[in-house]
Specification:
The protein has 15 helices and no strands. With 308 residues, it is mostly helical. It is globular and about 85 Å long. Helices cover 72% and strands 0% of the residues. It has one domain.
Length: 308
């Protein structure tokens, strides 16, 4: 046993020293971080699998729970807002939203992915504190594992959404899918950037997690998920507040998913002009945000072990 300990001690002594601090340089530091993450790809895969399994540990219904929350929200909003408040188009409410169930589920599918990445990602460093204090790994793998796990759940919800479009006779075809692809790219860039930023700040100030949850609750209602953007246009038509509203990236993401999966919205004034152009512009902005967030995260990570 002593010989094994001596061998292990010598092996550890021969290991090169790794700095847990930031990788310096405007582009060099970013590239070094990317190489470090890619070198730990197998670990990232294992952490992603662990995140997925942890969600359903000791659960009899397993993957069903990944659908339970959005389906419950769909039912509540459809009954409370669609039926009771008259959002669903009907003979008594001709100005309502046609096929309201598909309309709202399109937005909820995108929203669930975004909120999962940001909320769970914010707590990813604190939640893995024991591992971070023991071994060196690029800290970015923990928020990224949350992204992978959230995408797995998103794929299940997306499958339900696509099946629903077929049931309602609104299966998307042609160029419609381009809006969904652009929206998904924007969503992942934005949510990953925020997960990096908030997870690093949350180590030093645990109130960040609570602030994120409250902010997302407000942000959901500031996006056209349970109401249409046409209703916003009626109230804010042409003024500065409407332009600010349409600059919200989650507004564009929601509209793009609705444009793809909710065909009955065509030609009814539910979608602004130049939606594709605006998505491309927001993607460029989100790429800058992701880079900035990673560099902030890189600077904060040097004291993670001490703070945890």
């Amino acid at each position: 046993m002593d010989n094994q300990s001596d061998v292990r001690t010598r092996e550890l002594a021969d290991e090169p020293m790794r700095s847990a601090g930031p990788k310096h340089g405007f582009f060099g530091g970013t590239m070094e971080s990317i190489r470090d993450i890619l070198a730990h790809g197998e670990l990232l895969d294992q952490l992603t699998r662990r995140e997925i399994k942890a969600r359903y540990k000791d659960s009899a219904l397993g993957f069903f729970w990944s659908l339970a929350k959005p389906l419950t929200m769909l039912l509540v909003y459809y009954v409370a807002i669609g039926k009771f408040l008259g959002a669903q188009q009907s003979p008594g409410h001709p100005d309502g939203i046609p096929n309201y169930a598909l309309f709202i589920f399109s937005g909820l599918t995108a929203w669930q992915l975004f909120s999962d990445i940001v909320i769970i990602g914010t707590g990813s460093i604190v939640g893995n504190g024991a591992l971070i204090k023991k071994v060196y790994v690029p800290r970015e793998v923990f928020p990224l594992s949350v992204v992978g796990s959230a995408l797995f759940n998103f794929s299940i919800q997306l499958g339900i959404l696509i099946a629903a479009t077929a049931v309602f006779g609104e299966f998307p075809t042609g160029m419609r899918w381009g809006y969904a692809v652009l929206a998904l790219v924007l969503l992942l860039l934005l949510a990953t950037g925020l997960a990096f930023l908030f997870s690093g700040l949350n180590v030093y100030l645990r109130d960040v997690a609570y602030l994120v949850e409250i902010s997302l609750m407000i942000l959901m209602w500031a996006s056209p998920i349970v109401y249409s953007v046409a209703q916003v246009d009626k109230s804010l038509h042409g003024n500065l507040l409407e332009k600010i509203y349409l600059l919200n990236p989650l507004t564009l993401i929601t509209l793009a998913f609705q444009k793809t999966f909710w065909i009955q919205g065509d030609g009814r004034g539910f979608f602004p002009n130049y939606l594709g152009r605006d998505l491309v512009i927001e993607i460029c902005v989100a790429m800058v945000l992701l880079w900035f967030s990673q560099r902030v995260f890189s600077r904060l990570q040097s004291n993670f072990a001490q703070e945890l």
